[in-house]
Amino acid sequence: MAKVLITGMGAINPLGADRHATFDAALAGKCAIGAAPATIAKWLPNVLAASAPDPDKLLDSKYAALDRATQFAVVAAHEAMCEANIVTPPEDSRRFGVYAGIGFGGAQTVDALYERFYTMLHDPAQAGRNPTVMHPLSVPRMMANAPAALISMRYGLHGSSHTYSVACASSAVALGEAFRAIRDGYLDAAVVVGTEAMLTPGSLMAWNALRVMAKPNADDPSRSCRPFSADRSGFVLGEGAAAIVLESEARARARSQRALAELCGYGSSSDADHLTAPSTVEQVRAMQEALDDAGLAPAQIQYLNAHGTATDAGDVVETQSIRTVFGEAANRLAVSSTKSMHGHLIGASGILEFAISVMALEHRALPPTATLDMPDPRCDLDFIPRTARRDVAVDAVMSNSFAFGGSNVSLVARRYAA
Predict the structure, then answer these.
(1) Catalytic residues
(2) Residue 406 contacts residue 272 (beta carbons within 8 Å)
(3) Of 213, 261, 271, 393, which is most buried, counting CB atoms within 10 Å of its CB?
(4) Nearest to 339 by CA among 223, 190, 259
(5) Do the domain assignments include residue 309?
(6) Which strands form 189-196's sheet, in the order they lie side by side?
């Protein structure tokens, strides 16, 4: 089986317009959470959001008509492909795949369609116009596989193209499945992207109905998402994308490409129990599978990026799951939830948080749970409260993604020695 190396990464999200700005902001404990867009705030005045830089400012005008989620994906993929020094189209294009994760494809497009329909139906100034006439490319804009399709076309990649929609685990699943495809010899390389652009009135009204959204912090709204804190009240929805180029060790070596890390473990499981309530048993299984896949003992992991959504049940269950898997080593494990800063990117969360974990490995620095002022006694791990740790020994990391619907994914990366 081939070793699978990470040779390029990219990101655009509430913390920054590229991966380096993202990690710098995370280490600084910057909380990129604020008021929701005006179109949302007028209906939901207490709902917050974590907005990303506008992707259209970073793209050629020919991409202006794409859904915002696809634009984010194209920006992140471009950074990752450039860092990996991929010449396109590659000579081995049929051995180079595209794997994508997205929770709700084309949310911006769908909301715009309904808004246009009802505006034309009820606005006297639109009298006589047919409200059912929509843009002919509406379906391609909103289809879930649009990001993967555009990236495949942009770079001339003829290998397998797959899109996974597994709620909050979408892009973690995409990474894991691309890892297996390369490890087992079906592909030699893949660009993996996770993306989401769900900051729309319709989407936020739906999330608000679930009663999982954070209440605004009266003193500082940016600190409203407080994972593992005794006064946590839920998460804040974010947007953006991250991308990672994976290659077999042989392919990377053949072109003398530097590896950022080795992706070495993937575990997944399904609760088969409840649509929204988490399961300790199956989270434990996913983490243990990832460790076994990597051939690592719990004590060999120094940092874990938790799913950490700041919901009451979720944070406690994840703490219990980590303690079960890591045993005595849990007392020496550094854990943080970067959702405290960039919000919950749903389909893009898994890959963004894994990328941050790889950058922690790369820079020997651990991002904090930036808003953890008042730890919940039930969440009794080292959650790196408030301040980052620098110049630390870190050789292997884990990232957890646990989704509504009961899908659990854990990924493990380690330092690569050529």
Answers:
(1) 168, 307, 344
(2) yes
(3) 213
(4) 223
(5) yes
(6) 161-164, 96-101, 189-196, 240-248, 4-12, 261-270, 407-414, 396-403, 303-305, 334-336
Beta bridge partners of 192: 99, 244
C-alpha–C-alpha distance, residues 61 and 352, integer Å: 26
Total residue length of the chain: 418
Distance (Å, whole) CA 25 – CA 236: 18
Average pLDDT over residues 389-417: 97
Quick check: is 122 in a domain?
no
**112: pLDDT strictly greater than 90:** no
| Spatial distance between the Cα atoms of 289 and 105, rounded to a whole number of angstroms | 29
Cis peptide leading into residue 89 (ω within 30°)? yes
Mean pLDDT of 332-354: 98
Name the percent of the chain in helix, strand, coil, to the closest 5: 40, 20, 40
CA geometry: angle 155, 415, 262, nearest 5 deg: 35
pLDDT tens digits, 300-315 = 999 999 999 999 999 9
Q: How far apart are CA 161 and CA 276, in angstroms?
A: 29
Strand order of the β-sheet with 48-50 is 34-35, 48-50, 237-238
Residue 133 covered by a domain: no
Q: Is residue 111 part of a domain?
A: no
- Which helix (H) or strand (E) covers residue 360, if one does? helix 349-363
Q: Are 103 and 207 in contact (CB under 8 A)?
A: no
The CATH number of the domain where 278 resides is what?
3.40.47.10
Left (φ > 0), alpha (ψ -120 to 50) or beta: where does 88 sit? beta
Range of the domain at 252: 4-106+143-414
- The tokens describing 264, both together, are 């070495």
